[in-house]
Amino acid sequence: HDNTIAAISKAYKQQCDSPIHSTSLIHNRVYHLFISEMAAADDFQTASQKFLSWFKSLQGATFHDDIRIVDLRGQSAGRGIAFNADEYSVATKDIAPETVLFTIPRKAIINIETSELPRKIPQVFTGNDGDDEDMENEPLDSWGSLILVMIYEYLQGDASPWKPYFEVLPEKFDTLMFWESSDLEYLKGSAVLSKIGKDEADEMFRSRILSVISANPTIFFPQGVSPPGETELLQLAHRMGSIIMAYAFDLENEEEPEQEDEEWVEDREGKTMLGMVPMADILNADAEFNAHVNHGEDDLSVTALRTIKAGEEILNYYGPHPNSELLRRYGYVTPKHSRYDVVEIPWGLVQSILSEQLRLTDDVWKQVAEHVDPEDLEDVFVLERESGEPDSEGRLTTPAKVQEVSPELEEQLKGVLKAIKKVRGDLIPDKRKRDEVYHHVVVSTLQKLLTQYPTTAEEDEALLASGNLTSRQKMAVEVRLGEKRLIKEALQVAGLGDNGAAEEVAADEGQERSSKRARTAQ
Question: Where is this region: Disordered (predicted)?
Answer without folding.
Answer: 498-522
